[in-house]
Amino acid sequence: MKVIDVNNLEATSRCVICPGGGFKSIRPVLKSDGMGYSVTVTTIYPMAGPQVWHYKNHLESCYCIEGKAKIKNLDTGEMHSIYPGVIYVLDKHDKHEFTAITEVKLICVFNPPLNGTEVHNKERSYERE
User: Does the residue 128 lie in any domain?
Assistant: First the structure.
């Protein structure tokens, strides 16, 4: 059994800040933990504006626990509101645009798991190692 206090991870290698400052990703469960998935606590800031992401190498589910946002599926044009209690599932490697209206906090699960230090590449995706 592992018990992880996410509050103690901020000043460690398990906390990744977006190069542009648009979001912070605390990563309590990683590939090295051997669970077959990873978990992040991601905070997205409204000042970042719309963020386009396309996880070509990972499937992701995001559960909103705080804040308000909009997400747009860039392949279909569908728009959805994100607020506490809503989960969105990127089950088809969906290219999407995420716009934080207020500061948003998400609990995200990635499969395959993240190694821990990933940042978005030029395709707005994470590399798969």
Answer: no
Q: In this structure, is residue 115 part of a structural domain?
A: no
- For the stretch 21-38, pLDDT in tens is 788 999 999 999 999 999
- Residue 124, classified by CB atoms within 10 Å of its CB into exposed (0-12), middle (13-18) or buried (19+), is middle
- Number of structural domains in the chain: 1
Q: Is residue 122 part of a domain?
A: no
pLDDT tens digits, 54-101: 777 789 999 999 999 999 999 999 999 999 999 999 999 898 999 999
Read off the pTM: 0.89
Asked whether the CA dihedral 34, 85, 89, 94 is positive or negative, the reply is negative
Range of the domain at 66: 6-109
Asked, for residue 53, whether it belongs to a domain, the answer is: yes
pLDDT tens-place string over residues 2-23: 999 999 999 999 998 887 778 8
